[in-house]
Amino acid sequence: MRIKIDIPDVPLDPIFPHRFMRRLFLGERPSAYTKFSLIESMIRIIEHASFEYMQGKYVSENLWMDEDRRFINLHAHLYASSCFENCIGDVHRTICHVNSIRGRQTIFPEARNILPRSLPIYKASLRDQIRDLRRLIQHKEDRILVGEIVEGEAFMANLTGPEILTSDNNTLKILDRIELGAHSIRCATLSQALIQLRECADVLVIHEYDSP
Asked: Fewer Cβ neighbours under 10 Å: the N or C end of the chain?
């Protein structure tokens, strides 16, 4: 069986990095502390989510694409799983921040005007998919702690995907999604959610720190 990794990249650049210099030397920040805390919390979570996602990608590529491998590196497999689980949890938290910013008109009345008008992360279907997977990850851990996991039951997220028969009668497995039990999310979908959330963070920060 041959393996193909299909995990799109996401940016790892700091979001509007010179805001730290302006805060450090000029003391600048959004005037309302509630607004400041929302923006800064969102940034730290989405940047961590991006890092965990790319770590999961790098580890998976090294694990599966090593042509000289003679055995599965269990440590790398477990580490990649943890990275993707952390990413999914952080993406859910960041979506909650965006929803709060868009919905709290008394704190951020201009948010709906400056944020992108139409993004897939605003849709209930994607939000629910990420939320349900994150809940399942937490629920599995709770069941592990009380000894309810049964033989053969999946208890951590795994990178998986379809298998296809190639023209030379070999099997090609495409690792393109993260799965736990009956729930899964394609890496392409997760990467797009990360990119869209980073776009929201960029817009908010630039508006707050670069507005005249």
From this structure: C
